[in-house]
Amino acid sequence: MNQQTLLSTHNLFMSRLLLSLLGAYIAHAYRHVSHDYWLLMMFLFSVIAVAPSYYQFRQKGDNFKAFVRNLLHWSGGLCAALVVYAYHGSGRIFHEEAGLIVLLILALTSYLDGIQSGWRCMFIGLFLGLTAVCVAYFDSYIQPLAALAIAAITVSYQSKL
């Protein structure tokens, strides 16, 4: 499997969606450590989002502006998440609140990236925002989110063909 296939929009979408679903489960089962997971996902989603533009820049030598725009966008989201984590470390906000805030930052950053890069990133942002609402207000939300994720993967696969 070459890098271009690995970095296809469908494969990146599937990986982000499955990591988001895992995060929903962690936020449900292990609320006290979910802030660590969402901070890790902020870093990982940043790498996943920047990797294709970096790969394209390295291969073709063009699209430097797109690469820098993408890098600045995701580094801004990372900085905001790190500020929330610093607030958490100082005791100003609790574990659950820190996790929800970082999740909302990740959702907004993904959604805004999707405006430039396509519907898959926008859907990830909406899915993460829905996850944040579900974590905050509902007790049983894993199965409906899993059904939505399966439907989205199916639509993405059909769009790939």
Salient structural properties:
mainly alpha; 161 residues
Describe this structure in words.
- The protein has 161 residues and is an all-alpha fold.
- It has one domain (20-160).
- 86% of the residues lie in helices and 0% in strands.
- The protein has 7 helices and no strands.
- It has helices at residues 3-6, 9-29, 34-60, 64-89, 95-117, 119-137, 142-160.
- It is flat and about 45 Å long.
- The relative contact order is 0.15.
- The mean pLDDT is 91.
Q: What is the overall silhouette?
A: flat
Tally of structural domains:
1
Please state the CA-atom Rg, rounded to the nearest Å.
16 Å
Q: Please count the beta strands (DSSP E, at least 2 residues each).
A: 0
| Structural class based on helices, strands and sheet pairing | mainly alpha
Largest sheet: none
Helix content: over 70%
Order of helices and strands: HHHHHHH
Poorly predicted parts: none
Q: What does the average pLDDT come to?
A: 91
Portion in strands: under 5%
Counting DSSP H or I runs of 4 or more residues, the number of helices is 7
How far is the N terminus from the C terminus? 18 Å
